[in-house]
């Protein structure tokens, strides 16, 4: 099996892009190639687009296929749940092997990784505030009004569970129109997660590359950024979603995925901050999009008083 680095060295970026286009969808689903994950994402996007096109013209023709996909999804999710029940045993075995073959200094390294993760997340929060000020808005106001949602995400470790609070905060406190708020909050749970699908896989990829002796040069960074951007599509906004994102990125890059299992013991501690960062990114997208579209209510955004969030039933009453 050819690694991504070897493919890039021998054929260049153009060949890597062409290798993502599946020639045989059944072979692609077996995962026999390093680019199988990206090929699956590409095929899924194209299939979904085609289904939507047919649904517009002849909805009755495609309804059976949609029902089949939904049924298959439920079956696969049931299988995943059963497999996840065995995960603690596998993690215990890997952790036991790690402890038997390493000393206490290895545990200290895990603490350093935890500290490095929080440092990277804090820096990204700072970049969010810089982007807010770049578009002529007050970063202090943004931080003050989004703080309750971030705290909820930090505790729940689920950006998906925070969607209602996310939307209500954008519309009632930040002045974002309802359509933009709904789109940014929903997309933010599965696409472009700054923490779970961005920072965490990137850090693990760098660590794995160093262990394997792979040079971290400009070409490696470009490959990693491209792979992370594509692989971030469809990452579930629930606790532990970053683990699947990291496995996908490491597999595509041809790196050792054992490091993911080793860090599972502290993954929950990192996941809390990552989730808060994901939610901040989705709200930032909503605010900036509304600002660019001219639909942002700046008076509501700049209002110093923070009114309690009202439920839809209370508003309609």
UniProtKB/TrEMBL annotation:
Entries under Pfam families matching the protein: SDF (PF00375)
This protein's record includes keyword Transmembrane: yes
Membrane topology (UniProt): Multi-pass membrane protein
UniProt keyword terms in alphabetical order: Membrane, Transmembrane, Transmembrane helix, Transport
InterPro entries: Na-dicarboxylate_symporter, Na:dicarbo_symporter_sf
Main subcellular localisation: membrane
Positions in coiled-coil regions: none
SUPFAM superfamilies: Proton glutamate symport protein
Cell compartment(s), UniProt: Membrane
Parts of the chain that traverse the membrane: 36-54, 86-107, 113-137, 220-238, 244-270
Family membership: Belongs to the dicarboxylate/amino acid:cation symporter (DAACS) (TC 2.A.23) family.
Cited PANTHER family: L-CYSTINE TRANSPORTER TCYP, PROTON/GLUTAMATE-ASPARTATE SYMPORTER
Protein name: L-cystine transporter
Organismal lineage: Bacteria, Pseudomonadati, Pseudomonadota, Gammaproteobacteria, Vibrionales
